[in-house]
Amino acid sequence: MESFASLQGVSKLYRDGRRTVQALRDLTFDITAQEFFVIIGESGCGKSTVIRILSGLTAPDRGYAMVRGKKVVEPLSNVGIVFQTPLLLRWRRVIDNVLLPVEILGMRKESFRKQAMDLLHLAGIDGFEYSWPWQLSVGMQQRVALCRALIHDPSLLLMDEPFGALDALTLDEMDMELLQIWRERKKTVLFVTHNIQEATLLADRVLVMTPRPGEVSSMIQIDLPRPREHSVVETPQYHDLCGRIRDGLREASAARRRNGRPSDAN
């Protein structure tokens, strides 16, 4: 299938004074339109850097990113991003936080108010549109952040471990609501996580990254039926796929140890 978004031979170095850290090395992958694509890897392997490069917030040192057939050379307006923490503005009510990207893009806020209300309903937090962020639980705040990322109808949704701080029950709820939103809004999603069970539940494909510097270790097809209900976690097929991802992570780590993990330059 035709590529919707991709990284091609991307390498990235971070410099802090005399110290240099290589986050990514020759990373290449493709995402197809309306695919739910998940990246998993150990902490520090460059997952968040992938998000920043694909969105145009960070430039690679080598290689390039592509979205909808165009090379990414600046921050993209047709991308929505959900970070690890909600990052809501405390002095703006929920509805105004959701509408923030519309204002930044210079669009008429009132034209998007109904869409904002529809998104809040879809995310299960209608009735809280005039609440302050500090009045909401962390899970509800992250729902608001998701609505904010979708308000301008982006073609690509980038999610950087958005539910990592949630308790297990809330995590399950958010994963299922995200699948419903993805199905109804027909978005292309790149989702970063370190949670094997979450990756298996959500993904069409899972890219397993090596420890830093991040490279492709393996790509695992998740052939669970869709639409996906949470009951799928009780099936042998689901547990087998979790095991394949776990084995992939272990093999990536073991291979890096065997080959000698590159030290950070000084």
Report on the structure:
The protein is an alpha/beta fold and 266 residues long. It has two domains: 1-8 and 34-78 and 156-259, 3-Layer(aba) Sandwich (Rossmann fold); 88-154, no CATH class. Helix content is 34%, strand content 25%. It has eight helices and ten strands. The strands form two sheets. Strands 6-7-8-3-9-10 form a six-stranded mixed β-sheet, with helices on both faces. Helix 7 packs across helix 8. The longest helix has 24 residues, at 236-259. The radius of gyration is 19 Å and the shape is globular. The termini are far apart. The mean pLDDT is 91.
What is the molecular shape?
A: globular
The beta-strand count equals 10
Give the strand line-up of the largest sheet.
6-7-8-3-9-10
Report the total helices: 8
Task: Give a quick precis of the structure.
With 266 residues, the protein is of the alpha/beta class. It is 34% helix and 25% strand. The protein has helices spanning 47-55, 94-98, 100-104, 113-122, 138-150, 168-185, 196-202, 236-259; strands spanning 3-16, 19-32, 36-40, 62-67, 70-71, 79-82, 156-160, 188-193, 205-209, 216-221.
